[in-house]
Amino acid sequence: MSLARRLISAGFSDLEKGERFLAARELDGIDQERIFAGLHLSANPDTALQSLVRLIEKHPSLRELAGEDPDRSEPLYRLLGASEALGEFLIRHPEHLDVFDVRVSPEPLSADAGVLRTKLLRSVKADPSSPRPVAGMTGASAYTALRTAYRRGLTELAIKDLCAASPQDFMPAVGAELADLAGAAIEAALAVARAEAAATFDPADIAGVGLAVIGMGKCGARELNYISDVDVIYVIEAPNLEDAKAATIGTALAAGISRAISSTGSEPGLWEVDANLRPEGKSGPLVRTLPSHLSYYAKWAESWEFQALLKARTIAGDKDLGSRYEQAVQPLVWASAGREGFVESVQAMRRRVTNNIAPAEEQRQIKLGPGGLRDVEFTVQLLQLVHGKSDETLRCRDTTSAIAALSAGGYIGRVDAAAFDAAYRYLRVLEHRIQLFQMRRTHLMPTSQESLRFLAKAVLGPFSTGRPHPDALIETWQKTKRSVRELHDRIFYRPLLNTAAKLSTEDARLTPEAAQGRLAALGYRDPQGAMRHIEALTAGVSRRAALQRQLLPILLGWLAEGVDPDAGLLAFRRVSEALGTTHWYLGMLRDSQAAAERLCHVLSNSRLIADLLEVSPESVAWLGSDKELTPLSFEAQWQEIQSKMSRHADPANAMRLIRLIRRREILRIAIADSSGLLEQDAVGAALADADRAAVLGALHVAETIVASEGPLKTQVLVVAMGRQGGREIGYGSDADVMYVHRALPDASESEAQQQALAIVGHISTLLTQPLKPAILAERVLSVDADLRPEGKNGAMVRSLESYAEYYRRWSLIWEAQALLRAQPMAGNDELAAEFLRLINPIRYPESLAETDVREIRRVKARVESERLPRGADPARHVKLGRGGLSDVEWLVQLLQLQHAGKHPQLRTTSTLQALDAIEALGLIDRSDVVLLREAWRLASRIRSANVICTGRASDLLPASRRDLEAVARWCGYAPGQAAVFEEDYLRLSRRTRAVFEKDFYGQ
Fold this sequence. Notes:
Number of strands: 10
Shape: elongated
Radius of gyration: 38 Å
Strand content: under 5%
């Protein structure tokens, strides 16, 4: 076989470089067959060969081991092929090459933690038997000695790890030994810090300060990575010293530990010592006494801090002090699940992890991405916190032991626990092998084919002789990630279902108390009620119950992500009971993840949508198709209404169908809005189309009723006003209108007026009166004609000629302002055109007198003082309050009255279009327009969100935290950002008010 073929067979990537290094003089005389036999064992033979040559150059006696039989040389080739960084360490320190003089075992034993501590302390000439060891050396020489001893221990561990028959089986022991080694390094660093502190403080005072180093995170749990920050908390005790002096010395010792571990030097630093999990984080003192810690935890700590303490363990320093710290905080950890805000805290922790992932890295993340290590750890820790309060067997720190305990306690099914454990071990081995190569803190899957080929070999045990293709590695990894996500859902929710359905199964079943505890931890406020719903959905042996048992593990999780999972689950039960016998419903949820997730999202976040779906459950079918969620145009709705009216002559029946169509379209629009399929402007236009179609239908029905008593004598036109005229309405908007009529030929004015009054009276009644049977969950369209001439004191309907006479002789400036948003809505097209010709000169005057400007300002001030509801906070009233809709709209309308006569682009009923024209014309500063537009949009969104989320119309920014969270999410804010949303609105409205006062009042 040619040399090139042999290199390819051994797994080399760079054949030219491989041939060159094989020909190096350092390898002269060594049996090449033995070299190739060793390189076949290496995960990365290119790196192994290069490191071997460089090592022999520094230490020629290694030639003998390189030419030995693989049984003897295995540690050498496996280490050099798996870790370039440790090869570099041995090149720097050839005195440690005796690390290879070891007989490897397929089932290696872990190093004793006490032995590791002794070795590291002796490396800095400290006495391991001393209760508070002090190093016999300081400065750079001490740091080098400590780091070298640590890396010697790390190399010994890496050899055991790489030669273990099953890397996954040995993984927990690797994490434990890495944590013990880190603890030993910190113990030695503390000894050095004590020696260095003697240059500043009295040695007796230093000896009088007890310092316990509490390991947190993976180090505390004894499941550390090869390279990772070591999270710590420092506790001090000095009964014979003043507090200030003790704190100063303790801080110096803590700083000395970090300096010895990670400062720059000839021997590189090991890792960062991170104390940011201490009380108050970076803002708090570096060291505290035990009473100070407990005082903080009792008064100020957030829920996540207790969850972090789940892993707390003394790793160095004063063992007795550390033990007392552990005993004091443990009860706080296991009581944390009952704290107010626990669920929100847990959810916020998950979001922080997810949000911190760079988009370019998300798909490469082994630790933080979907299906990664954090998913396993989050699941296990939450279950421990929920159930560990009453079950002490769950109170273990490391993940693999916790999985075993949860399975033994019946909280996780045996099969699921085994799969979860296997997935976690595989991901950790993957992470270890990636980090080990260059000893860099990374959790990303490499992208190059060369790195993937090396990794595919590295994760296998020594009994695997093949070299898998990189695609096989990626496939296994992706399969593991999918498994973790599926297991997360099953482990959380399947035992709840087994309990609820009272199944006889080998899978986990929880006690009722445990099931309710788990539901409470997930965010369900009424766990007993939730269990009743689950029981109702899953009980029995029907196909429907079986499908629900299959689906609910996932659906319960999606519901729990909403603002009100209890309401969402109740609504899901009602929808399921209404549709359970249909052939398509559960199949759609099973086969369409998008439909199922949308359903859970809308049911748990929107009271309005949930109410509407409960009474029209067939609309659930839309959720599987974006096309079905496209709002029907006005023309399509009107065509459908005409078809209904043609087949239903009875006015009550016809009107019922018209109102049902409107209710259906509001639901369609709301779901599309919730799903992000509609922009805000499109929502307002679609809702206006639904209202317009309903009003036009009501007009035709009203005319039919009147015509049944005699011939029609007049034509009626319904003119939309206000936000309805601007086609910028929300889910809770009324229909502001004016009524115009024109007598038909041969009809007297009095007869026409009387009949017009009858028609408009019927319109209002038809749209609002209760029907039998009732239209459930309908958002009744209230018709408000208060913007007519003379307001509530004026005639309900006028002829076109009467309008012309009134506007010529008596109209006030506020009526011209109201006409700015007048838009024909329903009725005769010719009459509509004539009405617009009549009002255009009034609403778009050539000029606006200063007296009219003063009157508009006076009326606005009066509106602010008289119409704001008593007791309402002006800062939170989005319509009439500071910087609210009224401010923006009155300013825009004043500018239209002043300039639309000369600038046709201002002649629009839409506030947003008018703002665009104002910006283009430069009537006010562009920055002011941008601010006004943003404020108007947000205030409008809040009004709609109040209706969508709570089912109740309100013009106030919610004060309830829960309602505020719901509205914030509807307005596009991430979960848990309600306070940010609130502050954003209040800040925006303050700035908007300032712009309004400057441009409206000229202040």
